[in-house]
Amino acid sequence: MIEFVQETGSTNSDLLARLAGGEHLHEGQWLVADRQIAGRGRQGRDWFDGSGNFMGSTVVHCAPSDPPAATLALLAGLALYETCLPLCPDPSLLKLKWPNDLLLGRAKLAGILLEAQGASVVVGIGVNLAAAPELPDRATTALSRIGPVPARDHFAERLSTQFATELGRWRTYGLETVLRRWMGAALPLGTPLSVHDADKKSQTGQFAGLAEDGSLLLRLEDDTIRVIHAGDVMLA
Ligand SMILES: O=C(O)CCCC[C@@H]1SC[C@@H]2NC(=O)N[C@@H]21
After folding, report:
1. Residue 21 has pLDDT above 80, yes or no
2. What is the C-alpha to C-alpha distance for residues 48 and 184, in angstroms, rounded to an integer?
3. Looking at this predicted complex, what is its ipTM?
4. Distance of CA 192 to CAs 38, 135, 141, 189, 233, Å?
5. Residue % of the chain over a pLDDT of 70
6. Beta strands 192-196; 120-127: pairing state
7. Relative to the CA of 54, which ligand 1 atom is closest?
8. Second-level CATH architecture of 192-235
9. Distance between CA atoms of 50 and 148, rounded to whole angstroms?
10. What is the tally of helices (H) and strands (E) in the chain?
């Protein structure tokens, strides 16, 4: 079920507030906004609310038997990738970048924000369907730059269906299958990356795949492999 609203602060904040207020949110329920006046991205950044873009959130209630909650970002990335694929004249341009981004070429097309409340995780997704912001520190793009602007409501239906499919696979087949499929949609191995951790320290290296738990593997200059559990990753 998708609930569409014209304007809100942030669809993630709304679902977190509903959970905090004791409301039971069903998995498969989505909140999608035309405008977000306080949309949030990762690392405390703002999220651009371009008219015609997709901005929506859903909830996953994690069970002890589920794979680690953080890997919902990889599952959401796959759902995004599969939904955007038919909209790209050149699908080879579409690539997942760890942990939460979908790129078109070298520019960011979509992002994912996970926010937990107890065992429930709100998964927020923003996709530049119609418009992309000009940002000083990273390249961004929109699907409208490579084809007709996708209809937001139809996109929302397709994404929610694909997300439900990926969630079922995550639970049924486990993380290994998700990781294998994610790697099939990811930037090529050896892609130069720079990683900024929570203390804003940065290190550069090459993309060397994913660890068993979904962490990033970064090959450093001396050929050692560093396991990155969290951070902001940019193309170097
Ligand atoms: O790449 C990122 O930094 C994550 C962006 C997540 C944006 C979406 S838009 C819908 C939901 N509501 C928010 O406030 N943020 C997420």
Report:
1. yes
2. 29
3. 0.99
4. 33, 21, 20, 9, 10
5. 100
6. unpaired
7. 9
8. Roll (2.30)
9. 16
10. 4, 12
Query: 24 φ, ψ to 5°?
Result: -90, 120
Task: Report the nearest-CA residue for atom 3 of ligand 1.
Answer: 41
Pocket test for ligand 1, best of 125, 127, 137, 232 (most atoms within 8 A of CB): 125
Distance CA 191, CA 217 (A): 12
CA of 75 to the centre of ligand 1 (A): 16
**What does the block give as tokens for 169?**
């696979």
Give tens-digit pLDDT for 182-223: 999 999 999 999 998 777 788 999 999 999 999 999 999 999
Ligand 1: centre distance to CA 23 (Å): 22
Closest approach atom of ligand 1 to CA 101: 1
pLDDT grade for 137, boundaries at 50, 70 and 90: confident
List alpha helices for the chain, DSSP H. Answer: 11-20, 72-84, 152-173, 175-184
Ranges of each domain in the chain:
2-184, 192-235
Contact of 40 with 68, CB cutoff 8 Å: no
| CATH fold for domain 2-184 | BirA Bifunctional Protein; domain 2 (3.30.930)
**Centroid of ligand 1 to alpha carbon of 63 (angstroms):** 24
Q: How far apart are CA 87 and CA 151, in angstroms?
A: 11
Pocket (CB within 6 angstroms of ligand 1) = 10-12, 36, 39-42, 45, 47, 55-57, 100-101, 111-113, 124-126
Query: How far apart are the CA of 209 and the centre of ligand 1, in A?
Result: 25
Write a three-state SS string for 38-85: CCECHHHCECCCCCCCEEEEEEEECCCCCCCHHHHHHHHHHHHHHHHH
